[in-house]
Amino acid sequence: MNEPETEPFDTHDTHDADDTPDAHDGGLLPERERVLWAALGRIVEPGDERAGELIDEWGPEEALARLTRALPAGVAAPDGAREIAHGALIGARLICRGEAGWPTQLDDLGSVRPVALWVRGRASLRVLAVRSVAVVGARACTGYGQRLAADLSVSLTERGWTVCSGAAYGIDAAAHRGALVVGGPTVGVLACGVDQVYPRANEQLLRRIAEQGLLLSELPLGAHPNRPRFLQRNRIIAALTRGTVVIEAARRSGSLNTARWAGDLCRQVMATPGPATSSLSAGTHELIRRGAVLVADAGEVVEQVGGIGTDLAATPEGRERLRDALAPETLRVLESLPASTRGGSVESLVQRCLLGPDVVLRRLYELLSLGLVERLGAHWRLNPACKGTS
Questions:
Q1: Does pTM surpass 0.85?
Q2: Neighbours of 99 (CB within 10 A)
């Protein structure tokens, strides 16, 4: 199958890949193990169940040896150390299974979970994925679909949720732009290497996603997209997020593949209605008939994916000070936030309040739902509008 044309990112403005949250949290595997995972990522095709079972049974070292022996004659063995070194040069970093930065919800995929992930951007994938929603849909969408995707993403981002999509034309691009326009992070999951530009017309969008959020891929650097890789990419979008919203999809659409993965993984499946006469609404209407939740705005999405009791808005007047009603751990995290407008990272708060990173994250999102803090990319700060009630 002919692969779509791509072009590599210009790397003149790249940064040292160690200048990232995941590189400083002390949660990286030993270099020897990282090299093994990088090499496996070079030769294991996305969604290869047999290779996944081999890795699960024998571990990365023996699995790599067996898979390397099975390579066709003349095909060079993968060099994981070289992969990692090249990634560092262009500002891409590797996240391996078992590392602190690995989003464990991907393990729900079992033997077809990614071998490893390449990411481009400074944000922490684990942090962004804690409260994330997939917004996907047709590439050849209507103006109605574009507006709905953008508006939904704006509102979700303002509520502290990360929008995840596939960085393609149409609904995907509108969803990413909606998050970016209000200064929020967004995650783009690619069907090619994170150093490739595809589709080419989205080059500027891809750059902005990497600057404010993350681009990620299970494919090795330099890899080009093809149809099977697009379909396999969808399983990562579904597994990474708490739920998938489909906006405009024909009866045969890749977005429906994402929804199927979400349903199989026990994630929330949601869809937006459209005109009964539109072929681009036929797929979403079919999803709704089969049990997907009909949603029309961010509030209805959050109602489906949010935690019980943790995504409630704070009372507007509140004679009772919210601070007085907080649990001790939550109050400890709140008081650890610096007074500066820039705020602090999760890692810095862990050091300040001496709680585990998962505990700090849960408490930060509780404070976010109460309107007491704001998230600025990978940083958190006190909400200036709530000084009087906190």
A1: no
A2: 19
**Residue 133 dihedral angles phi and psi, to the nearest 5°:** -130, 135
Is the previous residue joined to 199 through a cis bond, with omega within 30 degrees of 0? yes
DSSP string spanning 325-365? HS-HHHHHHHHHS-SSTT-EEHHHHHHHHT--HHHHHHHHH
Better pLDDT: 369 or 183: 183
pLDDT of residue 332: 86
Q: Which fold has domain 7-304?
A: Rossmann fold (3.40.50)
**Joined tokens for residue 164:** 């995840």
Residues of CATH 1.10.10.10 domain(s) within the chain? 322-386
Task: With beta carbons less than 8 A apart as the criterion, state whether 344 and 381 touch.
Answer: yes
**In the chain, ranges of CATH 3.40.50.450 domains:** 7-304
CA gap 32, 327 in Å, rounded: 43
Q: What angle do CA 179, 184, 190 make, to 5 degrees?
A: 60
State the Cα–Cα distance between residues 191 and 166, nearest whole angstrom: 8
- Whether 19 shows a pLDDT value over 60: the answer reads no
| Interval 104-136: pLDDT, tens | 999 999 999 999 999 999 999 998 998 999 999
Which one is the CATH code of 322-386: 2.60.40.10, 1.10.530.10, 1.10.10.10, 3.30.300.20?
1.10.10.10
204 within 8 A of 176, measured Cβ to Cβ: no
CB count, 10 Å around CB of 123?
23
The two three-digit tokens of residue 315, written as one number: 């009372």
**pLDDT(65) > 80:** yes
For residue range 282-330, list pLDDT tens digits in order: 999 999 999 999 999 999 999 999 875 556 444 444 333 556 667 788 8
Instruction: For residue 93, give the DSSP letter.
Output: E
Whether the pLDDT of residue 102 is over 90: the answer is yes
Give dist(CA 123, CA 212) in Å, integer: 8
E strand segments, the chain = 7-8, 92-96, 116-120, 132-137, 162-165, 186-189, 196-197, 214-217, 243-247, 268-271, 293-294, 344-345, 373-376, 379-382
